[in-house]
Amino acid sequence: MRDNELCEIRRLPLFRAMASENFTALTRAAYDQTFPAQVRLIEEGAAADFLHIVVEGSVELFAGWQGRETTMQVVRPVSTFILAACMKDAPYLMSARTLEKTRVVLVPSVDLRAIFRIDPEFALATISELSACYRSVVKHTKELKLRTARERLAAYILRQAKLDNNGPSFILPMEKRVLASLIGVTPESLSRAMKSLQDVGTKVDGQRIIITDHKALEAVACPTPLMDDPEQHEQGLRP
Amino acid sequence: MRDNELCEIRRLPLFRAMASENFTALTRAAYDQTFPAQVRLIEEGAAADFLHIVVEGSVELFAGWQGRETTMQVVRPVSTFILAACMKDAPYLMSARTLEKTRVVLVPSVDLRAIFRIDPEFALATISELSACYRSVVKHTKELKLRTARERLAAYILRQAKLDNNGPSFILPMEKRVLASLIGVTPESLSRAMKSLQDVGTKVDGQRIIITDHKALEAVACPTPLMDDPEQHEQGLRP
DNA sequence: CGAACCCTTGACAGAAATCAACTAAGGTGG
DNA sequence: CCACCTTAGTTGATTTCTGTCAAGGGTTCG
């Protein structure tokens, strides 16, 4: 594994405080790999053998049932995913696939579980990370149950703009059909929702979203920290 | 606090393995209280001062936004709730109210955070508990996005019957309007969904649900461990 | 150049919310 | 003990929203 990545991983909240020798032990057993787009990394129901860390690219977490499929989360660098399954040694609840060319570091979950038993700092960091993950899903669920499709889209746009330095425009970080599934609608419905937001301060030009009237958009989304503020782990660490 | 409750709390996975003196320290600072029905225990957005443990009765976790409201979870004895907010010292994402006369034990979250720093066993148990909480919400979210209202109701009925010794009938453990909100529909829609399930092996008599054709109901719900199996913490500890 | 694939648009169907009325059950106070 | 009131639940009529199906434009990639 390249030193470069090791440093970035080490900087993650999850690994920042642990003892050096334990970090070394963890990453010695780990390996990193680069995948092309649309590669399945994880199949839901399988045993949780590896903690995954996205170093470059992006990964879609999704779930299926009876021929239906839905996007649960999109993970960007540098972040981990499926920590909970690893910690409980339980089957993955979600599948994962790369959305683009993606570099992933895989840490064997047996090593993880061994090390959080001997490194209190790592155990504390794990608690913090899991709490953040939990709170993220709760926010996602609240949004699904409390906001309409149009409101969810408006809120997403405001969140994404904020992450992108709060500029007046940004490029969607995923395909629209993935975004549609993430916010819980069909691509057709997303398309119509986008259109309907053009009356309230939004312009769409391909993958670019332009906010022309921030106040008007906020009037639709009514953002609140209890649904819209990202948990610390969510945006990942930018290089 | 009564010895009786102390024992039950001590038996919880979260507290089972920790050192005795730490458990004593935790519970010395704690106090227990009994509330009538419909009392607000927690307001979303408030600081997470106490870990709550339901000892008797039941508590509804719910969230609101813009005048709308939705039930996120119903907690029954003996279980904890809002652990994640306590661990991160972050604002509660959900409100809580008693559904009936309920006895709750309150553990100051400062003490919690102090003790998981010095008691590795407690830290490990916390990791396990948080992972289970995370996985529960993921399952709830998957269900909302992948199943229709009718399918969610069918799945709920099968899960609840299983918890109730897999008998041919059971009593709904909450009011129907609360169940409706939990599965993400209006009370009117729940009522119609119940009716529509009468064609596929279900009978309803007030609060009692009778399963007359388990196979037929399963054909609607298509239960899968990845959505329908409870995480260990969910059903609580029965006395 | 053709073949996918993504996105959009339109027409339609289906699901669920809303609004309103009515029943039934439980609790309160006379 | 009964009349009254409140509230949960049901049912029907209607509207709104979202999904489905089908078609067409535009892009990318082999």
How would you summarize the topology of this molecule?
The structure is a homodimer of 239-residue chains.
Chain A: H1 3-11, H2 13-16, H3 20-29, E1 31-35, E2 40-42, E3 50-56, E4 59-65, E5 68-75, E6 79-81, H4 83-88, E7 95-98, E8 102-108, H5 109-118, H6 120-146, H7 149-163, E9 169-171, H8 176-183, H9 187-197, E10 202-205, E11 208-211, H10 214-221, H11 225-228
Antiparallel strand pairs in A: 1-8, 2-7, 3-6, 3-8, 4-5, 4-7, 9-11, 10-11
The structure holds a DNA duplex (30 and 30 nucleotides).
Keywords:
Arc Repressor Mutant, subunit A, 23% strand, DNA-binding, four-stranded antiparallel β-sheet, alpha+beta, 239 residues, homodimer
Describe the structure.
2 copies of one chain form a homodimer. The first copy, chain A, is α+β, with helices and mostly antiparallel strands and 239 residues long. Chain A folds into 2 domains: 3-143, Jelly Rolls (Sandwich), CATH 2.60.120; 147-228, Winged helix-like DNA-binding domain superfamily/Winged helix DNA-binding domain (Arc Repressor Mutant, subunit A). Chain A is 47% helix and 23% strand. Chain A is built from 11 helices and 11 strands. In chain A, the strands form 3 sheets. Chain A has a 4-stranded antiparallel beta sheet. A 4-stranded antiparallel beta sheet of chain A has the order 2-7-4-5. A 3-stranded antiparallel beta sheet of chain A has the order 9-11-10, covered by helices on one side. In chain A, a hairpin with a 2-residue loop joins strand 4 (59-65) and strand 5 (68-75). In chain A, helix 7 (149-163) crosses helix 9. In chain A, 41% of the residues are buried. The model of chain A has no long low-confidence stretch (mean pLDDT 94). At the A-B interface, strand 4, strand 5, helix 4, helix 6 and helix 11 of A face strand 4, strand 5, helix 4, helix 6 and helix 11 of B. Chain B binds a DNA duplex (30 and 30 nucleotides) through helix 9.
